[in-house]
Design goal:
The protein is of the alpha/beta class and about 260 residues long. It is built from eight helices and nine strands. It has helices at about 15-30, 40-50, 65-80, 100-130, 150-170, 210-225, 235-245, 245-255; strands spanning about 10, 30-35, 55, 85, 135-140, 175-185, 185, 210, 230. Strands 3-2-1-4-5-6-9 form a seven-stranded parallel β-sheet, sandwiched between helices. Strands 7-8 form a two-stranded parallel sheet. It is globular, with a radius of gyration of 18 Å. The mean pLDDT is about 100. Bound molecules: NADP nicotinamide-adenine-dinucleotide phosphate (NAP). NADP nicotinamide-adenine-dinucleotide phosphate binds near residues 42, 88 and 140.
């Protein structure tokens, strides 16, 4: 699918980080963007500075099914259809399972995993009716290889991965396709609320890959109908090594990230 003038694109988690960078890139190409997140004022401010006319879908929690269904319907009506839906909204709580509250576990499950289900299920009938369109699901490298303190986060990202892998095949012959996205560490606000307690294997932060480079890779992936997009490329290598031998994945992580990334021998 070509991304350009006339593309009607719905992006969840558009107020910050990867979603915002993607919304900026899409708008620069002439797309009409549905900007969805909880924070209305940030989305209004973004819509004001983007070129073109966009649809602000503020006050929407992707973990609330009715709220997502309403927002997707509003966007389809205002834009006259949907060509691209990007399930990107997500959050983290990096904590040991034995210390993590079940509330945090449920929140990640609701927002990262069920948020993807609600977003894709709400938009899919419109895409199928049109016989054209593209779905993007932003998972994580953690969906290929989970890390200590990110057990539940990784589980939600693996759930997205399996969902997307199967759905891409289910969509064969419909005119609709799907691309999975596996970011590594990208410089966004994802961990701002937990900066003081990040695990020592974590090497992200302001010097990680910029969100706009991730957004460019996503657009290329959509245009090339890629099955998946990995950024930075080391994420693909880690996934491949872990898939062949988890023990070799452990060794690779200890070399790259130190013993805390895979302490058990
Ligand atoms: N940054 C990384 O290193 C990295 C690595 C791998 C994967 N990812 C994935 O990339 C995606 C985007 O993350 P990011 O790094 O760009 O994080 P971010 O800067 O924190 O942005 C997250 C976005 O999601 C929205 N959001 C969070 N909870 C929401 C909810 N319940 N309902 C609606 N919107 C919600 C936020 O907006 P509001 O708070 O206004 O709702 C914000 O726009 C996530 O799925 C994340 O798991 C990121």
């Amino acid at each position: 699918m070509n991304v350009g003038a006339g593309t009607r694109a719905l992006v969840t988690g558009a107020s910050r980080g990867i979603g915002r960078a993607l919304a900026e890139r899409l708008a620069a190409r002439g797309a009409t963007v549905g900007l969805l997140a909880r924070s209305e004022s940030e989305l209004e401010a973004l819509a004001d500075v983007l070129p073109g006319d966009h649809v602000v879908l503020g006050g929407v929690d992707v973990g609330d099914r009715a709220s997502v269904e309403g927002a997707v319907a509003r966007f389809a009506e205002r834009a006259g259809g949907i060509d691209l839906v990007v399930s990107n909204a997500g959050l983290t709580h990096y904590e040991l399972v034995r210390e993590q509250s079940v509330d945090h576990m449920e929140e990640m499950t609701r927002v990262n995993w069920l948020g993807t289900v609600y977003t894709v299920k709400s938009a899919l009938p419109t895409l199928l009716r049109q016989g054209s369109g593209h779905v993007v699901v932003v998972s994580s490298g953690a969906g290929h290889r989970s890390f200590p303190q990110a057990a539940v986060y990784g589980a939600t990202k693996a759930a997205q991965r399996m969902f997307g892998e199967a759905l891409r095949h289910e969509l064969a012959g419909t005119g609709v396709s799907l691309t999975m996205v596996y970011p590594g560490e990208i410089a966004t606000s994802l961990h701002d609320h937990e900066k003081e307690r990040m695990p020592s294997w974590y090497k992200g932060g302001p010097n990680a890959a910029p969100a706009r480079s991730m957004a460019d890779k996503i657009i290329t992936g959509i245009e090339e109908d890629a099955r998946s997009v990995y950024h930075p490329p080391i994420v693909r290598l880690l996934g491949a090594v872990h898939g062949l031998s988890p023990a070799a994945g452990d060794r690779m992580l200890r070399i790259l990230r130190g013993p805390s990334a895979a302490p058990r021998r």
